[in-house]
Write a structure and sequence with these properties.
The structure holds two protein chains of two kinds. By secondary structure, chain A is mainly alpha-helical. Chain A contains 13 helices and two strands, in the order H-H-H-H-H-E-E-H-H-H-H-H-H-H-H. The chains are: A mainly alpha, B alpha/beta. At the A-B interface, helix 7, helix 8 and helix 13 of A face helix 2, strand 6 and helix 3 of B.
């Protein structure tokens, strides 16, 4: 694909996304708006996990745990303490950050394989705890969570909740964008490229990784808080291992580290199963086939990041230069 | 007092000992070269000094502080910066991002350091926005040194800065190292190119199989028959100053 064509395609996609995002609540049916709101939740989750996996290169297999902690914090505080939605947000952020620190501090010193195992376990622990504790409502979970209010206005309609979600997404999007270009963002990229070289430049890898892990956790917590007031009912089945894998799929499908990629992939992951409802029995089977075809056609992701593109080119160049080096050595020995 | 003092340093990779107790000193303001064949332990010595490897025993003192138990990122903050072998630049970042990363230890990027680096390497100023992986080998080496200078080190450890470079670039890099030293930065350099290193450095150590085999002023070592045979080519006359 040539660069100009690529730019046109991308420009058109950006315009299309903005038109759909703003037009949906105006012309869409309540069902479509609900699907759109679910896309927004997955965008938030994808952007959060992207900080952990895409930016810092840490494999987290239990990301839904932070999503659950955010959702349950907001749900319990609103149900039992009758706190306003907005007051539960900072509390949820603190809880998710704290759990991120507790899980991250010992495990981030180890190789990333161990992190994957520990996070996998953490995800299950949180889900099983939520299923068995009484204050989390057990397997039935929490229900009757109040709608959020702004001023005296209750956000009850699908449209209002959609716009609340959109506002959340914009904040998380701006945060992610700036993080990638910050001092911390450079440190993450440096660690991903070469941890020892990063240390030689004065970066303490454990600290930088912990920051990524905790920030990702807070993003998921915010998504969880929104999720709780959007559905007004939550239960442990929303926070399974499959949920963690689905969020991971969003960033792999989109192209690691790419923000537009997360948005596109979140839309695909949510909308595709809806479109396939016509197939009824084989719906999830068709969904799986669809994802496999997408990864075969675009292994680099739907919208690869700048870094991702350079990475692939660098591999190609180094292979070419290795081949050239062999050729040059051969030429030198025959001289 | 010496800026760097290394005492009986022993470093091992698992059960294989690479350094069998080396000692060396670097005084404030000098350039010292570390020579030796492949596998003699030069790179291991530098990596141990900068904290990337933990010594099994022995001591490293820098500016009066013992640093052999400190982590690498901490040692950088004390003013000892290592330019590792093979131009460890961050190839996915731009030149500018690499330099900013070099100043990571400081809360904001020091403009004075950036200006100095661009004065030393005007080529890097031209290529500021370019992705570092697309630079030529010489430019990448310049960037690796420039990034280290962003930390404003008192002591610079250079590992094979001339490796894989064309002769004209080797000369340029060597001249720049001399210039960096004139501005007040102490240098400990590991070099395969022994003749260039001996011309640049005031003193040198020769490592053999993880031990210091010879040490002394560069001029003496350049005349030493063993050094000439092993590192400068058998009986080859020393090339004139370039």
């Amino acid at each position: 694909m040539n660069a100009l064509g690529n730019r046109w395609v991308r420009g058109a996609l950006v315009v299309a996304v903005i038109v759909v995002a703003l037009g949906l609540p105006i012309v869409g049916t309540p069902y479509l708006i609900d699907v759109g709101t679910l896309v927004l939740v997955y965008i938030m989750l994808g952007l959060g996990l992207n900080v952990v996996v895409g930016y810092a290169g840490l494999l987290d297999l239990g990301y839904a745990a932070f999503f659950a902690i955010g959702a349950y914090t907001t749900g319990i505080l609103m149900d039992d303490a009758h706190l306003a939605f907005w007051w539960t947000l900072p509390v949820a952020a603190c809880f998710t950050a704290l759990s991120g620190v507790v899980i991250g501090t010992p495990t981030l010193r180890l190789r990333s394989d161990y992190l994957a195992i520990v996070t996998l376990g953490f995800g299950e622990i949180v889900r099983i705890a939520a299923t068995n504790l009484t204050f989390t409502g057990g397997p039935e979970g929490l229900y009757g969570i109040a709608h959020p209010t702004i001023g005296g206005f209750v956000l009850r309609s699908p449209q209002a909740l959609y716009f609340l979600g959109l506002a959340f997404v914009l904040v998380v999007l701006a945060g992610s964008y700036n993080l990638a270009r910050s001092r911390l963002g450079r440190a993450w990229l440096a660690i991903r490229e070469d941890e020892a070289a990063a240390q030689a430049a004065g970066i303490y890898p454990v600290h930088s990784k912990l920051m990524a892990y905790v920030l990702g956790a807070v993003f998921a917590g915010a998504a969880g808080s929104f999720f709780a007031v959007k559905l007004t009912a939550i239960n442990p089945s929303s926070f399974t291992f499959i949920q963690s894998v689905t969020i991971l799929m969003v960033i792999i499908l989109g192209g690691m580290g790419s923000l537009p990629g997360v948005i596109l992939a979140a839309a695909v992951i949510v909308v595709l199963p809806e479109v396939l409802r016509a197939f009824d029995q084989v719906r999830m089977f068709a969904f799986g086939i669809g994802l496999i075809i997408l990864m075969l056609v675009r292994p680099q992701g739907l919208w690869p990041s700048r870094i991702g593109q350079i990475e692939r080119r660098a591999v190609a160049v180094s292979e070419a230069s290795a081949a050239a080096g062999v050729a040059a050595d051969a030429a030198a020995t025959t001289e | 007092m010496n800026l760097l003092e290394v005492r009986n340093l022993v470093t091992a990779y698992g059960s294989i000992e690479a350094l069998h107790g080396i000692s060396l000193d670097v005084a404030d303001g000098e350039i010292v070269a570390l020579l030796g064949a492949n596998g003699a332990g030069k790179t291991t010595a530098l990596r141990t000094i900068s904290g990337l490897l933990r010594p099994r025993s022995g001591e490293v003192w820098f500016a009066g502080a013992r640093i052999d138990r400190r982590p690498a990122h901490d040692i950088v903050r004390l003013g000892l910066t290592h330019v590792p072998e093979g131009r460890w630049i961050f190839s996915l970042m731009t030149v500018d991002e690499n330099l900013r990363l070099g100043a990571y230890a400081e809360p904001r990027v020091p403009q004075a350091a950036l200006d100095r680096v661009f004065t030393l390497f005007p080529r890097l100023r031209e290529r500021r926005a370019q992705v570092a992986g697309t630079l030529s080998g010489g430019e990448q080496q310049m960037l690796a040194i420039a990034r280290a200078l962003m930390t404003r080190p008192r002591l610079l450890l250079l590992d094979e800065p001339s490796m894989g470079l064309a002769p004209v670039l080797v000369r340029l890099i060597i001249q720049t190292i001399a210039e960096i030293n004139r501005d007040g930065t102490t240098v400990l350099i590991v070099e395969q190119n022994a003749s260039a290193a001996l011309r640049l450095a005031r003193r040198a150590y020769v490592l053999e199989n993880g031990r210091v085999a010879l040490e002394g002023p560069s001029a003496d070592l350049a005349k030493n028959e063993r050094v000439r045979q092993a590192y400068l080519g058998v009986g080859a006359p020393l090339r004139a100053q370039g």
